[in-house]
Amino acid sequence: MMNLMIDGAVRHFIPIKEFRADHGLPPTFSMAHFEPKDFTGLGSIDRAGAELNQLRAAVLAAVPDRLALAGWLEALPQLHATFRGQLYAINAVVQLHESEIDFAAAGFGDVTQAYVYALIRANAAKDPPPSFAVVYGVWLNSTARVSQTIYEYTHQGSVWRVQLVTHAYGRAGMIVAMAESAAVYVHDVTLGCPAEGFMAGLLAEVAARIQASITAAG
What we know:
The chain is α+β, with helices and mostly antiparallel strands. It has one domain. The chain is 49% helix and 19% strand. The chain has helices at residues 16-23, 31-34, 49-61, 72-89, 91-94, 98-124, 132-142, 196-217; strands spanning 2-6, 9-15, 145-146, 151-155, 158-167, 170-177, 184-187. Strands 1, 2, 3, 4, 5, 6 and 7 form a seven-stranded mixed sheet that branches. Strand 1 (2-6) and strand 2 (9-15) form a beta hairpin. The protein starts with a strand and ends with a helix. The mean pLDDT is 93.
């Protein structure tokens, strides 16, 4: 289940298969029904397992073994440059557009910087180190957007109103407003970014390495 902050409140998105089963919907009920996606010219990680492992290893190796918290804001640009450079290094296989590389690099930079700032605030307040999952969740929530386009979908004589939801990784789900019922938030990954899981995992590993580096530095 996915949670996203929408209109100032945390919304729980149920898996689309569960939503279809609950309401007797066909498999065609999805984000693609309302806004089909054109995959022409898009990059792909389907055959890039070895290259992604190469990128992961290089980025993790770029995290210093020992570096005090005070030095991390100065060290981050080099880590960000390593990530961007590794994306270019594997791009012959994944074939991202330059704008997609820029977007991925910006996201990597935003999350790692947010985590270091959270560490600095916690240290100043003499609090325990922050949870990376919380920092990551705040960042992902900050990127959530609800489309202003409203689609109508007729089901069993009722007309539903559907809006699409996106976040940093692209299309994430739908808000389905059914007659005389509260809106339902539906998670649909079919048109999302296939690299979302990889990026979330890599960022979590980088955050753990940063924390370990600070601890080792004393």
